[in-house]
Amino acid sequence: MIEDSLEYKAQVRLLADAGRLFAQRGWVPATAGNFSARLNEEQIVITVSGRHKGHLDDSGFMVVDLEGNILSPGKTPSAETFLHIIMYRRDPSIGAVLHTHSANATVLSRLFPYGLTLNDYVVLKAFPAITSHETSLPVPVFPNTQDVPQLAAQVDDYMNRHPGVSGYLVSGHGLYTWGRSVEAAIQHVEAFEFLFECEILSRRLSP
Ligand SMILES: [Zn+2]
């Protein structure tokens, strides 16, 4: 069983640590958020539906393949599983996908229903392919929907046309970002959350 492999156990430990970190920061309130990591070319480990992400143990994770088939019998994956799968299918170098629901991400997604751009922040260098602070990073915002496969197709289409995107918001809902590893994806969540806080603060303080 893949659940007995060292790779599975290592990824589960890293994702559970991410959950505790994000819970301390208030980015995964109640049962919000979901996390996944790649196990191999065809399989990922993903959080099960409905758990608090600050208290994840082994029972909070399961295996699905990139077609969406459940490989851990008796467990139910996050309703948003296809938003994870679409990223692993797009890019074999993606090793983890993290989804959070912070207040700042939620507020910005409602203020900018057509997307926002983060301009000229040093922290933008946390993202791949960005080497200068004199740059801008578009953050698309997609309308929230219960039709997750349709939203996943919309994200996929957008990414085909805008290859430099490092994360996106779902309106009134939260952030999706990813990385080559769980550690890299955690850094991207932290960078986005810092930048969202800056955007909110600058709006609050500007006359
Ligand atoms: Zn969500």
From TrEMBL:
Reaction equation(s) it catalyzes:
5-(methylsulfanyl)-D-ribulose 1-phosphate = 5-methylsulfanyl-2,3-dioxopentyl phosphate + H2O
Q: How many and how are cofactors bound here?
A: Binds 1 zinc ion per subunit.
Q: In which pathway does it act?
A: Amino-acid biosynthesis; L-methionine biosynthesis via salvage pathway; L-methionine from S-methyl-5-thio-alpha-D-ribose 1-phosphate: step 2/6
Q: Which SUPFAM superfamilies match?
A: AraD/HMP-PK domain-like (SSF53639)
One short Pfam name that applies is: Aldolase_II
Give the binding site residues for Zn(2+): 99, 101
Q: Which EC class heads this enzyme's classification?
A: lyase
HAMAP family found in the cross-reference section: Salvage_MtnB (MF_01677)
What name has this protein been given in UniProt? Methylthioribulose-1-phosphate dehydratase
Tell me the name of the encoding gene: mtnB [H]
